[in-house]
Amino acid sequence: MSDKELDFHQASFAKMTSNTSQSGEQLSSLVNRLVSAVDPLKDKFEGSGRNSLDELHRRAESVSILVGGDLNSLNEGQNEMMNAVMQGDEEMADSTRSQMSAANFDAGKLRA
Question: End-to-end alpha-carbon separation of the chain, Å?
Answer without folding.
Answer: 50
